[in-house]
Amino acid sequence: MSKVIVVGGGPAGMMAAATAASFGHEVILMEQNDKLGKKLYITGKGRCNITNACEVEELIEAMVHNPKFMYSSFYSYTNEQVIDFFNEHGVATKIERGNRVFPISDKSSDVILAMERACRDAGVEIRLGVKVTKLSHDGTRIYGVTMESGAEKADSVIIATGGLSYPVTGSTGDGYRMAKQVQHKIVHCQPGLVPMNVREEWVKALQGLSLKHVVLKLSKGTKELHQAFGEMMFTHFGITGPIVLTASSEVDEKQYPLQGSIDLKPKLNHQMLDERLLRDFAKYNRKDFANSLGDLLPKALIPVVIDLSGIEAHKKVDQITKEERLGLVDLLKGLPFTIEGKRSFKEAIITQGGVEVKEINPNTMASKKVEGLYFAGEVLDLDAVTGGYNLQIAYSTGYLAGVSIL
Fold first, then answer.
1. SS3 at position 243
2. Could you tell me the CA-to-CA distances from 140 to 143, 346, 368, 369, 372 in Å, in that order?
3. What is the pLDDT of residues 131-163, one digit of tens each?
């Protein structure tokens, strides 16, 4: 069997290392941090959304970029196998809303320990605090790596260094630099699954307010770019939350600024919402307009809606005209604001872009440019929406790289 070096101790790297070692290879896992899974530790707000318990075809549908590339990976190592892997290594799991899979303990540290245990049980040599600076190669074949502390020979190298998101965890683009050393193309990188900056001050004034069961729409001129139903939250800079993060990955940064809108009552069409308003206005007849919306909207949102509606706050409800009421319906069905751009990599959950997948064999994760080189995880130009799908990409590509070592 051959000697394998895996660069990067995240989920893709640990899975690749454990898999390769389980097939009898001599494996060294090199991680520049002082512990494995540093980024994994903070995923899911420390709970770690391990994967998604959907059908494999739905995994592919959740991909934002290069879904066809993932067929071999997802079918070679499915989400069911991932769940079985963690169960077998002492992590009991549960399924929550949206088929999201979490450890029952709600501790990402349990996930990391399970993966580290799998590596050690398989015989992987784990080296922490080791920074790989470049690949050792002759232009056609890899024969090891160079580190700050020296060099190490190997028959194969798997790059699983992650992307650029959360750079404090060590994701600083090292894998891209190594890929470029052997002439691999890097698709432009940008933050993915990241909050968004909004221009209007009223949005920022609502900091901390969460909205559930709303529809977020993004448009450029007359063209609608994205629409999603779910939960979001206002912040001191703009908006965040599940549907916002997903929206951020669906739109290219070159398209900003964008028009955004929130349908506060998506389950009611315009006529139904107008009828609801008429009932509320009848209930609060002779009350001020400002005191008539408490049954319909969160308290913090009422002053904003009143201001944007153009209706005087102290105007009596029975004096509101039909035109004003219909204008209010339009506002509630499309609360408008301007999205100026995404937040930075410091707040991004994932990186969009990376090593061009056309230069990678999807059946093995092997480089088509140089023999003995493999890639896995976020370093590749692969990403998906929120819900555990991106970690599944890491496990599946890591497994396929590990099992494909010659």
1. helix
2. 10, 36, 10, 7, 9
3. 999 999 998 999 999 998 899 999 999 999 999
Distances (CA, A) of 263 to 135, 327, 394: 51, 14, 35
Q: Give this prediction's pTM.
A: 0.92
Q: Is 51 left (phi over 0), alpha (psi -120 to 50) or beta?
A: beta
Closest by CA position to 230, among listed 213, 248, 217, 209: 213
Tell me, what amino acid is at 211?
L
Distances in Å between the Cα of 328 and the Cα atoms of 216, 217, 218, 265, 337 are 18, 18, 21, 12, 16
| Sole residue written with tokens 């494996």 | 27
Phi-psi map region of 125: left, alpha, beta (phi>0 left; psi -120 to 50 alpha): beta
Q: Which residues contact 41 (CB under 8 A, 6 or more apart)?
A: 108, 109, 112
Full DSSP string of 296-343: TS-GGGHHHHHHHHT--TTSBGGG--HHHHHHHHHHHT-EEEEEEEE-
Residue 57 burial (CB count, 10 A): 11
